[in-house]
Amino acid sequence: MREKKIRTLSLICFIVCLLIWVPNLFFQIASPLWLLTFLLAPVGIALGVVVKNYWLIAVNTLMLFSFFIFMALGYFVNSKT
Predict the structure, then answer these.
(1) What is the distance between the alpha carbons of residues 26 and 23, in angstroms, rounded to a whole number?
(2) Which residues cross the membrane (predicted)?
């Protein structure tokens, strides 16, 4: 039962990190909430490590580096125009 709760918390960290990007990416609202990804994603990674769920570790790691990924994609798209 404890493992299931930890897995759920790690998944919640991932989902919240995804939802944090919604105002910036889809509504073009400059929201500083994306900074929370630097706090929530490591928590999700740590919880994923505890339950040894590699999928949760991978997606939370992706969310940890999401700012840098979006920044690189933005530069790439703008360099082509």
Answers:
(1) 6
(2) 6-26, 33-51, 57-77
Looking at residue 29, its amino acid is I
SS3 content of the chain, % helix, strand, coil (to 5): 85, 0, 15
Each residue of 12-31: pLDDT tens digit?
999 999 999 888 878 888 88
Q: CB–CB of 37/17 below 8 Å?
A: yes
User: What is the average pLDDT across 51-69?
Assistant: 93
**Angle at Cα 68 formed by Cα 32 and Cα 53, nearest 5°?**
95
The CA distance from 76 to 73, in Å, is 5
Closest to 44 (Cα-Cα) out of 81, 20, 72, 11: 11
What are 35's two structure tokens? 């900074």
